[in-house]
Design brief:
This protein has a single domain (about 5-90), classed as 3-Layer(aba) Sandwich (Oxidized Rhodanese, domain 1), CATH 3.40.250. It is built from four helices and five strands. The chain has helices spanning about 5-15, 25-30, 45, 65-80, and strands spanning about 5, 20-25, 40, 60, 85. The protein has a five-stranded parallel beta sheet. The N and C termini lie far apart (about 35 Å).
Length: about 100
């Protein structure tokens, strides 16, 4: 079972560097605005890029609404990651700062 965190809690963790945030949206969505310092790995690429995700760090997965990130968090948990969270409501509920590029 995947645990969830509120966007407010994720914002706090992002500011303090307590977690690696992985944005699993497509490239165009990510470029349109993402959480500062979030790592972009689209859901379709995640299984092929697991080596880029450290197992010794808390990982928070983010998407647009929370659906794709739920799948990604489940995939990570099944791959042996222990401290994995899904951000509830995704970027639709995010009110913190964003970066575009």
């Amino acid at each position: 079972m995947v645990r969830h965190l509120s966007p407010e809690r994720v914002a706090s963790m992002a500011r303090s560097g307590q977690a690696l945030i992985i944005d699993v949206r497509e490239s165009s969505e990510f470029a349109g605005g993402h959480i500062p310092r979030a790592k972009h790995i689209s859901l379709g690429q995640l299984i092929h890029r697991l080596r880029e995700v450290p197992k010794d760090k808390t990982v928070v997965v983010v998407c647009r609404s929370g659906s794709r990130s739920q799948k990604a968090a489940t995939l990570l948990a099944e791959a042996g990651y222990r401290n994995v969270y899904n951000m509830s409501g995704g970027m639709q509920r995010w009110s913190g700062p964003t970066v575009t590029h």
